Amino acid sequence: MATDCFEQSLTHRSAHNKHNERMEFLGDSVLGLAITKALYHQIPKASEGYLSRLRASLVNESTLAEIANELSLGDFLRLGAGELKSGGFRRKSILSDTLEAVIASVFLEQGMNAAEEFVLKIYTDRLNELPSEDDLKDPKSRLQELLQSRKFDIPSYELISTSGDDHRQVFTAECRIPDLSIITKGASSSRRKAEQQAAINAYEIVKERFKKK
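User: That's the sequence. What structure does it adopt?
Assistant: Structure tokens below.
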């Protein structure tokens, strides 16, 4: 039987005045500490920078939302009519915040050890398959380093379009590498992310070209 604390962790502010926002705040800290400890002990020779980037990749909104989907958390959310109608049970921000609140509920009811065990359990696969330090570099930095290693000029970026409503805009950016006659595009919810996606697409093309030489 679900406890009041657990039920509150699944309650969005649109559904009830006793919602999970404060629990999200607590859960974020509990999650951060659990992941930090796990990484510190798992890879003792890792630099502080690598550990920081690893932690950021594991506790960001996208990763939390992925785990929430794996746990089918959306099926148990308590949402107001408006959020239900607009598909709030699939929204990354709501799913990630709710998972943090669930972690907080474990901490509040069973203590830090139980909360850490829960975090390690839901992160098992990701902790067993950690990305390399190079994979975690900003996509634009990776592309720049690859080009400079072959004495090519750094790429340029340009925002070419913005579409959609103010609260759901889509930005499209181009990455240009004139020396190699490469132009790639990327689209996302912010200009920075759009440029990063364009850089990822360019990186794959450049890497393949360099392999053939």
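The chain has two domains: 4-128, 139-212.
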